[in-house]
Predict the 3D structure of the following.
Amino acid sequence: MAEINVTSAADGSLISSVIPDLGSVITIVLILVAAYLIVKVADYLLRKISEKAGRYRITVTMIIPLLKIVVYVSALYFILKTIFDPGLTELVLFSGLFGAAIGFGLKDLFTDIVGGIVIAFERPYQIGDKIEVSGTYGEVTDIGLRATRVVTPDDSVVSIPNYAIFQEPTASQNAGKTEMMVIIDIYIDSRSDAGLAMNILKDALITSKYVYVSPTRPYTVLLQDYPFYRRVRGKAYVNDLRSEFEFRSEVTRRVWVELSRQGILPPPPTHVPAEVAAK
Amino acid sequence: MGRDPDFAADLTHPILFEAEWERITAVVDEYDHNRPSHIAVIADPFAGQNILMDGILRRHPDRVIHIPFFSVVKSRDYLAQITGHKDIVVMDHCHFLATRKIGGFAMLDAFLDHISTSERLFITQWNSFTWSYLQATRHIDTFFPVTIDLPDIDRKTLKPLILSRYADEIEFIGDVTPREEPIFSAPHRTVKLPFSNKSFTIPVPRLRQGNGGVNSIHPADAEDAAFDKIIRIADGNYGVAERLWDATFDGKTVRVADIPNIPCTVNLDINESFLLMIILSMESVSVVDLAEIAGPEINLKQALFRLTNQGLVVEEKGYFQIKPEALSCVKGYVTRIRMVW
């Protein structure tokens, strides 16, 4: 147990200082190391298991942030218990110091940690999800206590502070599922046979090696007419969100091979679709 | 050797798929020419679906037009056979009507158009994986009011079926091999510590997997143990169970340890997995048809080599099919990666 020194200040108020002895310091270090190792090992094992879990990959990874919080909160509890058996006086004192620390400089850190806890329990997104927050789009690879790490399509790792979920809308493309809707647009000349183009896109979607179709995950093909071109839009689910771009690429390539074979042309260069020009 | 059973020939006592057989005959007997209830018999590869289809041919030889498909259907010529006074059409391997490529559903659509207006009763047989795919993407089940899924078989069904082939008594032998490995051991392993060049040898605890080859089967239980093991490896598939039996039975004895249990280790990329799924869904598919489905993105020769090399598919006269012993493994793999739904 740590030694508690109570001294009198000049103004007569009590100032308690907690000076842990060497044994307590070693215990605290061991608790921290153990917590760190437990989190790292469990994180590694759960990720390994999730990669072999197929469609249940994201279900397995969603345990990771919960586990981190449980381990670190437990570690904090044991550290406090090691330093002092928190009685009412110590708790009040600790709360006061903690509040002051938050007020002076740790506000953002504290908000991030609360954000991390909210993310772990409310699960607006999970590890493995494809999300868009603060203009960043990518796959969530880690939900830490302070920040969420996202890998963007160009393989950049972006750390998004957890407090962002309080301030900005968060879009999860797959909401914890392995499959994800992908929208594929094909622009054709307005004089082309739109019905044939729709059939070709439909066939390309449902014959793709990446597609997933079920009663709750249907596919759709839609046509939108514009003054100088037509947009054929296909919506279908990719069986694994990691194959999002491969799915899009494969379907687009096969559609254009068949469209060209059938004499269906893209819009003339003078009439580039506004959506394409904007991109 | 005993004789091969011809269950369909013995229509008074069908042994395999009795309930399914009764459902089909009931539909045929109640067949109303104004509103035929077309039948879809759905089964995994090798499951024994031909027993039911052959049974119909034998039961109604004067009423049935038989159209079996053996490869991908590329013309509507088969529809020309559906003429005359015969009022039942039996079609085998209907999964060859659809091909997983752009424009690959024309034959299926022609067939569905035909049965939509026909007064004949169509009894069709489909691969279960193709059926699931067409059900999800083309709602094919809406054309077939009667769908019959062939169930997995169990030991109680398999045992009399197999043993009825043989007049002589068969000796079943449980495994009697010496203990090869203790239940718990701690073999030494050499490890290197980080930031150090030194190696250390430490004991690593290890639990024995399985029973280590030790005989735990009582001789009286060896027969049931053999059929239990066959059913487990075959995952309830009759055709696979039959092949496992043939591979184990030496004419006089069956040794439980000799029943082949191929380890399921699949290491494929997305293109190879796709081809594997196509072969599973089409049961037997030619290289030419595979090339059309694969397209230029897939190196077909290399992919087929790897599939063959991993013991997942076999080639016979230019046609590829799933290796029966690997069926359970392949099904599990393509389901896990969501290639089939």
Summary: The domain at 270-336 of chain B is CATH 1.10.10.10 (Arc Repressor Mutant, subunit A). Chain B is about 35% helix and 15% strand. The radius of gyration of chain B is 24 Å.
